[in-house]
Amino acid sequence: MHAVGRMLVSRAQIAMFWGPEHRAFYNDAYRPTIGGKHPHALGQPAREHWVETWDVLGPLLDSVRATGEPYRGENHPFVLDRHGFLEDVYFDVSYDPIREADGSINGIFCIVSETTGRVLGERRLRALAELGGDLAEAADGAELGRAAARTLDRYRADVPFALVYLRDAAGRLALSGRSGLVAEGAGGADPTPLGEAATAVLTRVAGGGPAATAETADLLPDVPEGVAGQALVLPVTATNEPAGALVVGISTRLPLTEEYRTFCDLVAAQLSRAVGRQRAYEQERELRGQTIRRLSALADAAVAVNTARSTAEVVQVAARHAVGLAGAARVVVTAAGARYEADGGGAATAEPAVVLPLTGTAGEQLGELRVWAGDEDDAGPGRAALAQFARLIGVRLENAQLYEAEHRIASTLQHSLLPRSLPQLPGAVVASRYLPGSADVEVGGDWYDVIRPDGELVLVIGDVVGKGVRAAAAMGQLRNALRAYVLEGYDPGEALTRLNRLVCSAEQPSFATVVCLCYTPGRLRYASAGHPSPLLIRGDEVTLLHDRALGPPVGAVPAMTYRTVEGALATGSRLLLYTDGLIEDRELGIDAALGQLRADATRPGEHVSDLVDAVVARVAARPRRDDVAVLALEATEPHRFALRLPADPTRLSVLRKRLEDFLVAHRVGATDVFDLTVAVSEAAANAIEHPVDPAEPAIGVEVTIADDEVVATVRDTGRWREPTGAGFRGRGLALIRALGELSVSRTTEGTEVTLRRRLQG
Predict the structure, then answer these.
(1) In 3-state terms, what secondary structure has residue 14?
(2) CA 160, 166, 172 angle in degrees (round to 5)?
(3) Among residues 635, 658, 689, which one ends one of the domains?
(4) What residue spans of 295-380 are helical by DSSP H?
(5) Which residues, given as ranges, of the chain have pLDDT below 50?
(6) Which of 12, 47, 125, 560 has its CA 20 to 30 A from that of 403?
(7) Is 285 within a domain?
(8) What crossing angle do the helices spanning 296-307 and 258-294 adopt, rounded to 10°?
(9) Which structural domain, as residue segments, surrounds residue 76?
(10) 698-713 burial by CB neighbour count: b if 16+ within 10 A, else e?
(11) What is the predicted pLDDT for the residue at 727?
């Protein structure tokens, strides 16, 4: 009865299988797991209502009942009929025996959590990553269809079959790849003619029409088992022009949800981008060949423009080369948000001699080339070369804008994989920064995380080897797995050991360096997997937290056991965790860059975020070939903080940030945090602005919290200036008094304002 009561009141998805027939009982939270089987399955033998998956579920239940050993499984696959069709689903499961008073086992307590969405999402993300990589390696347009088919054939659970139709050089629609039907990725002519209806749908979609559906039986000679009766027919475009169609088979073992449909659309979008890039490259190559044959100078200019990646770079390089190409006195190139003027010397005419639009491959005007004639104006070949050059600039501007759009998307994705806010702990202040690499658009594998189990703060920073969506996906998996191990209560060493075991068992192993550090006031426990040592900062002294490698990267040695190292962290000390992008400098070298980092870490700063600002300032101002992640922690007194600030109103932001971190760490409510921040900021602003002849240009602020009461004291060293009654500041004390209990002490040594506020329940 205790087990039944526990099951019924729990919000977790719980079922109980009782007796030798495993009769099923479950709570309301479990009902979505079985769908339409409720309420018929209640109290009935499990074999009758889980018949479709009994070959998996039955042995699990029998084993737990027979041996008394619990069973745990993550992302365990099952096949369930809960909505009128067989569905592939995944669960985290826990099966525990229920013992009678005499020790015998007469039931099984089952806690489940459905992970189908996560498993499908990660699988589809891998498919898209592999598809992007395989398409990028295709040598020509004919290879694109075969490459897409080879990739999709590895993911038949989502795409049972696919047909890739692309237009050839003559504009004819031809099957260039198919998956799920014959040898994987085979291309060439159709194995059998399409039905009349399917042909009409395919022609319409490939000609620029919207996505549609077609009967699977009209597409294939024999419909394989597990394939839905209708397939999606999705358009494939190249720079907004029709280029073909992608036929995607739908699995009957998966519901056609919005996520499933979005995945199919993304597959078609990946193929469209690849076709567009391939055709743009072919057009660009053809144009480059023509210009090389006409004029060697134009070839030099084309090479220079093609190396420029951003819009600003394209505009600058184009203007400089156009001067020499046309013998011009002055050239101005403009594009969206960019302008560059190049001076060729000599007298220029009042009006430009040549004005050429810079257009993309679709004919859209992206900018303008304006040329003022010089003394050696070449009205013949020079202007013809300029026209060719203008076309090349337009194509490159289009590519640059695509590059910049992808870079923005990559940056957004990078930040979405990082924590939106950092938890706080009494006795600790944390700050972070993430700078994406600026040298390419690929998503990096750097990450950080801050976790707050009961009474402690866990800091994690890591770097997955590699670039691109695959590295980002691996990063997300490692981050979530390590967070789960930490929340389960494993110490840093054991958490990394389990993470390494997980990575090494994956179908596609990855490698990553990681530091996991657990902090409780005054005490440190940490472990490292091949990651650069954090810096320990005590005033002007900066040392490495550990001076030798504590373990290899995760994924490198399957049987590796990582040990937990213990240490102390005194109040006022700081820790700086970072990824290698912070110290990778080709001009300085690693040792010199690490020395520069140590020097930057000793710069004075009242808040730990000042430390982060100081160490990233160098890399933020220059191009970065790698991402940079920084995480910093300062050990503070748990129930008190004190700041000494210069009498500068711009520094009040440091006070507000430190006060907010302190209050949030003590779980103070939002209303109290807002009111106290306003009141203390106002008192500090008065202390900065009002004193007459202060002994020193600084103020002191002290805040304590005890017994649900916050006491804040602000001190200055000047004589009191009576308020004039004019302006907002004349009402400052009244505002503070409205937000708490206020007392003011004025002496010849200065003024002390004390605010007391009882926290709301």
Answers:
(1) strand
(2) 135
(3) 635
(4) 296-307, 311-326
(5) 183-189, 441, 725-730
(6) 125
(7) no
(8) 150
(9) 2-114
(10) bbbbbbebeeeebbbb
(11) 40
